[in-house]
Amino acid sequence: MSIDIDTARRVAKLARIRVEEDALPALAEEFNAVLGFIEQLQEVDVEGVEPMTSVTPQRLKRRVDGVTDGDQQAKILSNAPDAREGFFAVPKVVE
């Protein structure tokens, strides 16, 4: 697949980036280089290769997945202009 100048112009417009007319040929070349690299990657056989998150094997840090209320209700409500019975109090907007 090859990107021509008209396609590069259209991609720039869709991406909402301003590209001067004289820069369009260079942009089309860059797009073609990227597409060529993608075609190279598609030739690699990855059958049976396990995905990895890093080049060095490491176990991600984990914490207990427990639900808490944060235990900061009083601290949070202290910032409210009006709080009643443990909740934010707001003006009534619906009659």
Summarize the structure.
The chain is mainly alpha-helical and 95 residues long. The protein has helices at 5-14, 24-42, 73-77, and strands spanning 83-84, 87-88. A two-stranded antiparallel sheet has the order 1-2.
Topology:
Blueprint: H1 5-14, H2 24-42, H3 73-77, E1 83-84, E2 87-88
Antiparallel strand pairs: 1-2
Distance between the termini: 63 Å
Order of helices and strands: HHHEE
Mean pLDDT: 90
Structural class: mainly alpha
Pfam family, one: GatC
GO biological process, one term: translation
Protein name: Aspartyl/glutamyl-tRNA(Asn/Gln) amidotransferase subunit C
GO molecular function: asparaginyl-tRNA synthase (glutamine-hydrolyzing) activity; ATP binding; glutaminyl-tRNA synthase (glutamine-hydrolyzing) activity; transferase activity
Characterise this structure.
By secondary structure, the protein is mainly alpha-helical. It has a domain at 5-42. Helices cover 36% and strands 4% of the residues. The chain is built from 3 helices and 2 strands; from the N terminus they run αααββ. It has helices at residues 5-14, 24-42, 73-77, and strands at 83-84, 87-88. Strands 1-2 form a two-stranded antiparallel sheet. A hairpin with a 2-residue loop joins strand 1 (83-84) and strand 2 (87-88). Helix 1 (5-14) packs across helix 2 (24-42). The radius of gyration is 28 Å and the shape is flat.
Main attributes?
single chain, transferase, 36% helix, two-stranded antiparallel sheet, Asp/Glu-ADT_sf_sub_c, EC 6.3.5.-, 95 residues
